[in-house]
Design goal:
567 residues; alpha/beta; Flavocytochrome C3, Chain A, domain 1; Methane Monooxygenase Hydroxylase, Chain G, domain 1; 7-stranded mixed β-sheet; 5-stranded mixed β-sheet; 17 helices; 35% helix; globular; binds succinic acid
C-alpha cells in the first residue's frame, strides 16, 4: 500500500542543514508560526510552491472573532460546539474563541487592513453563527489580505529563511522522535536535502484534492498529514470532510467559492422551480450550519435529478454586492453570470478537512518534536463540522501557542547556541520558464499516467466517499484505493513531486475511508445513507496510526463533557 521508496527516505549521504525550527507550509498557519517564534531561533520555512500560493489566499468570508459589544466568547463557543455536532473538544474551543480577538488585533498591527463601517470593523454573519462576528477584507478577499500582511512580515524577519518550491518528502525520526525532514527543492540548486531541526511544525494544509470537485488549489494534497502518518504520529477525525454548499457550478479546478457571507447579506438558495431550498429544513434557513445546508442541497438535487441549484442574490442591493463581493462578482461575470440580475448556479464542493494530525492545545503531536497547525492539524475545535470562518482563526490562535511552546522544548533537541550547523539551505531563484513549469505541475499536466491515477482517485472519492456515503460505497472506495496504489507503484519506481503528492492522497484516502466505514451513523459532515441518524454511542473521536508493517491501527478517544471546559 505505501510505496517502498516513501517508507524510509534514504538519507545517507544527503547534504544537511540544521535549524532550530522547520516550518512546512506558508498559509496563515505556517506564516504566523514563523513570525511568532522568538527572533533568536533560526527558522526554515519550506513551501512547495511560491510563498503566497497557499489555500489561505482563497479564503473569502473572513475571520470569526468576538469583537462586537453584544457578543461574547460564550456565544462563539456555543455556536462552534453546535456546528461541531457533539465532537468538538470543549477546552480547545474555549481557547479558540477566547484568544481570537487578540489574533485579529495582531494582524492589524502587522498592517492587515480589514473592512470598516462607521470607523469600526465591519462584521458579517455566516452559517451557524448567532451574531455578526466575522471580519473581512477587500469585501471578499480576506485570505489574500491576511496572506499579504503575514508574508510581508515574514520576508523581513531576519531569523526566517524562506525556501520556496521545496517539497516535504518525508519526516525523519530517531528513537521515536521527529528530528527533521527530507526536503526536495526544485530548480538548478535543488534536489534532496536533510534538514535537522529541534522542532518540526507541519502547517501544510488539507487534502481537498482527494475530490474531483473542490474549492482547494491543486497544492492541497495532504503532504504533511501523510508524512506524519508514515512517521508514526496519530491522526484523528479524518472521516469528516466539509463540503461547501456553494461553489460556482463550473467544470474548473479549483471551483470558485461563492462565500457564505453572501447568504449572510441576504442571498437565498433556490431550486430550478424557484422554491427556497432551505425553507423548513432548519430554523436558521440559509444560515444553518454548513453540513445541514450541503445535505439540504444534495437532497433537493437528488429529488429533482439535477446537478446544481442556484443562489439568488438579486434581492441584495447591487451597490452592496459590488462593495462586499468584488472577487465573486468578477468570477461570476467571467463565467457569463451577472449576479445582480441572474441566479448563480452553485453545487457543493470539498472544502475543508476537519481531521488531521492530532495535537494538544499547544500544537504538539503524539510524536515528540513534531507539531501541527491549521488544516493539517486536528486540535478538536471543529468536531464533525467546522463553523464558518473558524479556520483562519484556528491557524492564527494555535500558531501563536506553538510559538510560545517551542522555545522551552528546543534546547537539548537542537545542538546549537545560535549558529546553525551544517550548510545553509541553498535558495534557488526560479527562472521565468521554471515558474511556468512549476505551475503546470501544480495544476497536473506532467506525467499522464500519474495524472491518470490522481484523476481516478478523485472521481472514486467523490462518488463513493463524498457528501453521502454508504457501507458498499466506502468498501468500493477502499478497494479502488488499493488498486490505484498498485498502479502508482507500477507506473514508476522513481520519486518526484507529482508522484509523491498522489501517494500522499492515496494514503490519506485509505485512512479516511476506513474511519468513515467504521462510523455507522450520520453526524456533522459525515452522512451515511445506510445509517442516517446520529448514534449516541458514536459520540467518540476516531484516531489512526500506522504500524511498522504499513497497516493501520485504529482507536477512539472520548470527547470531554462540555461543562468541564466552561467552568
Ligand atoms: C466562505 O466564505 O463561505 C468560506 C469561509 C470558510 O470556509 O470558513
Amino acid at each position: 500500500m505505501i510505496p517502498r521508496w516513501l517508507l524510509e527516505a534514504d538519507r545517507r549521504g544527503l547534504p544537511a542543514t540544521e535549524v532550530a525550527v522547520l516550518v512546512v507550509g506558508s498559509g496563515v498557519a505556517g506564516l504566523s508560526t514563523a513570525l511568532e517564534l522568538p527572533p533568536e531561533l533560526p527558522v526554515l520555512l519550506a513551501t512547495k510552491a511560491r510563498l503566497a500560493s497557499s489555500a489561505t489566499r482563497y479564503a473569502q468570508g473572513g475571520i470569526a472573532a468576538v469583537l462586537a459589544a453584544d457578543d461574547s466568547p460564550g456565544d462563539h463557543w456555543a455556536d462552534t460546539m453546535t456546528a461541531g455536532a457533539g465532537l468538538c473538544d470543549p477546552e480547545a474551543v474555549r481557547v479558540l474563541v477566547s484568544e481570537g480577538a487578540a489574533a485579529v488585533r495582531r494582524l492589524q498591527r502587522l498592517g492587515a487592513s480589514f473592512d470598516l463601517e462607521g470607523g469600526r470593523l465591519a462584521l458579517t454573519i455566516e452559517g451557524g453563527h448567532s451574531r455578526r462576528r466575522i471580519v473581512h477584507a477587500g469585501g471578499d478577499a480576506t485570505g489574500a489580505e491576511v496572506e499579504r500582511a503575514l508574508a510581508g512580515a515574514v520576508r523581513s524577519a531576519p531569523n526566517v529563511t524562506i525556501a520556496e518550491r521545496t517539497f516535504l518528502v518525508d519526516l525523519v525520526t530517531e528513537g521515536g522522535e521527529a528530528t527533521g525532514a527530507v526536503l526536495w527543492s526544485a530548480g538548478d540548486a535543488g534536489g534532496p536535502r536533510l534538514v535537522r531541526a529541534g522542532a518540526v511544525v507541519l502547517a501544510s494544509g488539507g487534502a481537498g484534492q482527494l475530490y474531483a470537485s473542490t474549492t482547494n488549489p491543486a497544492l492541497s494534497t495532504g503532504d504533511g498529514i501523510a508524512a506524519a502518518l508514515r512517521a508514526g504520529a496519530t491522526l484523528a477525525d479524518l472521516e469528516f470532510v466539509q463540503f461547501h454548499p456553494t461553489a460556482l457550478h463550473l467544470d474548473s479546478d479549483p471551483r470558485p467559492l461563492i462565500s457564505e457571507a453572501m447568504r449572510g447579506e441576504g442571498a437565498v438558495l433556490r431550486d430550478q422551480r424557484g422554491a427556497e431550498v432551505m425553507a423548513g429544513v432548519h430554523p436558521r434557513g440559509d444560515l444553518a450550519p454548513r453540513d445541514v445546508v450541503t445535505r439540504g442541497m444534495a437532497a433537493r438535487m437528488a429529488e429533482l435529478g439535477v446537478d446544481h441549484l442556484f443562489l439568488d442574490a438579486t434581492g441584495v442591493p447591487a451597490a452592496r454586492l459590488e462593495l462586499r463581493f468584488p472577487t465573486i462578482l468578477a468570477r461570476c461575470r467571467a463565467a457569463g453570470v451577472e449576479p445582480t440580475r441572474d441566479w448563480i448556479p452553485v453545487s457543493p464542493a470539498a472544502h475543508y478537512l476537519m481531521g488531521g494530525v492530532l495535537t494538544d492545545l499547544d500544537g504538539r503531536s503524539s510524536l515528540p518534536g513534531l507539531y501541527a497547525v491549521g488544516e493539517a492539524a486536528c486540535t478538536g475545535v471543529h468536531g464533525a463540522n467546522r463553523l464558518a470562518s473558524n479556520s483562519l482563526l484556528e491557524g492564527l490562535v494555535f500558531a501563536a501557542r506553538i510559538a510560545r511552546a517551542i522555545p522551552a522544548a528546543v534546547p537539548g533537541r537542537w545542538s546549537d547556541a545560535g549558529t546553525p550547523a551544517g550548510e545553509p539551505f541553498p535558495l534557488a531563484q526560479a527562472a521565468p520558464d521554471q515558474r511556468a513549469r512549476d505551475s503546470r505541475v501544480a495544476a497536473g499536466g506532467g506525467d499522464r499516467r500519474i495524472d491518470g491515477v490522481r484523476g481516478q482517485l478523485r472521481r472514486l472519492m467523490t462518488g463513493r466517499a463524498g457528501v453521502l456515503r454508504s457501507h458498499d460505497g466506502l468498501a468500493a472506495a477502499a478497494a479502488g484505493i488499493i488498486g490505484l496504489s498498485g498502479r502508482l507503484e507500477s507506473v514508476t519506481a522513481a520519486g518526484g513531486r507529482e508522484r509523491w503528492e498522489v501517494a500522499n492522497l492515496l494514503q490519506i484516502g485509505a485512512a479516511l475511508t476506513r474511519l468513515a466505514a467504521n462510523r455507522e451513523e450520520s453526524r456533522g459532515a459525515h452522512s451515511r445513507s445506510d445509517h442516517p441518524e446520529p448514534v449516541e454511542a458514536w459520540r467518540l473521536r476516531q484516531v489512526v496510526t500506522r504500524r511498522p508493517d504499513g497497516g493501520l491501527d485504529q482507536g477512539t478517544i472520548e470527547v470531554p463533557a462540555p461543562e468541564e471546559a466552561r467552568r
